[in-house]
Amino acid sequence: MSRGALIVVEGLDKSGKTTQIKNCLQILRRDGFDVCQLSFPDRTTSIGQLISSFLRGETVLDDRVVHLLFSANRWEKWKEIKERLMAGTTILVDRYAYSGVAYTASKGYDWDWCLGPDKGLIAPDLVIYLSASSKVLETRSGYGQERYENQLFQNRVSETFEKLVTHKWLRISSDRPIEEVTHHMIPPIRNIIDSCQNGALPLG
Ligand code: T5A
Ligand code: NA
Question: Which residues constitute the signal peptide according to the record (predicted)?
Answer without folding.
Answer: none
